[in-house]
Design brief:
The chain has about 260 residues and is of the alpha/beta class. The protein contains 11 helices and 8 strands. The longest helix has 18 residues.
Length: about 260
């Protein structure tokens, strides 16, 4: 069946959310710093800053590792900042304070968001080929915040469907979130390709849902122990996707 659509991951695929030359752990530390400063301004007695920020990565990693297909309702930024505060000895926060902490977490990170090289040009080239284009992002943030990031860098006009896990409470690598996007784009799995930087969440998830999975190659694999995943294709930069898509469309582009 002919290739009709391309669906993208967001962080690490279309947009950078980490400081230049650094990874996810640095991003979490930056967000936690905003939470720390906000609580300190409220007068809370907190651990030394460096010790406190060392908690950022274990908390974030623990939440992501807790994702399962049946219970994702608590995988939200409010839970994450509440757990950080609890580790720092703050346990009496009201809902409006947690919302403010989430905003403080996002503020520092959003200041460094930037597009990957060739993102706009790649999306434009795909639209010129009359392909349906969408996005699925695993994110603790409400989608409205990410939409503004995509708007700021001129990516939104090329994306017909935006699916954010925190909004729909469905997460990669599980099939429901892929089905959500496919239905919105009027695509069958075999008509679509998913592009992302994670072998597990993106490539494995897409392949399990019946899509082709294209991996933006990374130095480190994020695969669980014992899981072996082979991407349908591997690229290093987004513009490399264009000739790949053209080759697949030329040979029918679908799995038989």
């Amino acid at each position: 069946m002919a290739l009709r659509g391309i669906i993208f991951d967001m962080g690490g695929t279309l947009l950078h959310f980490s400081p230049p030359g650094q990874g996810w752990e640095a991003m979490e530390r930056l967000g936690a710093q905003g939470v720390y400063y906000y609580l300190r301004e409220l007068g809370y007695d907190l651990p030394p800053e460096e010790d406190a920020l060392d908690d950022a990565w274990p908390v974030a990693r623990g939440m992501w590792q807790s994702i399962n297909e049946d219970d994702v309702s608590r995988i939200k930024l409010g839970y994450q900042v509440n757990e950080l505060a609890r580790r720092w000895g703050v346990s009496d926060l009201e809902p409006e304070q947690l919302e403010a902490l989430a905003a403080a977490y996002m503020e520092g990170i959003r200041a460094i968001v930037s597009p990957l090289e060739g993102a706009v040009e790649t999306l434009e080239a795909l639209r010129e080929r009359d392909l349906r284009i969408g996005l699925i992002s695993n994110t603790l943030w409400e989608g409205r915040y990410h939409r503004s990031d995509l708007d700021r860098w001129g990516l939104t006009p090329y994306l017909e469907v935006l699916v954010f896990s925190a909004d729909v409470e469905a997460w990669k690598p599980y099939g429901a979130v892929f089905r959500h996007a496919l239905e919105a784009l009027d695509l069958r799995p075999e008509e679509a390709v998913y592009v992302g930087d994670s072998l597990y969440f993106d490539v494995y998830g897409a392949q399990q849902a019946g899509l082709r999975g294209v991996w933006i190659e990374q130095e480190r694999s994020d695969l669980p122990d014992g899981l072996d995943v082979t991407p349908d294709a591997t690229i290093r930069t987004l513009p490399e996707l264009i000739p790949l898509v053209d080759s697949w469309r030329g040979d029918g582009a679908g799995r038989s």
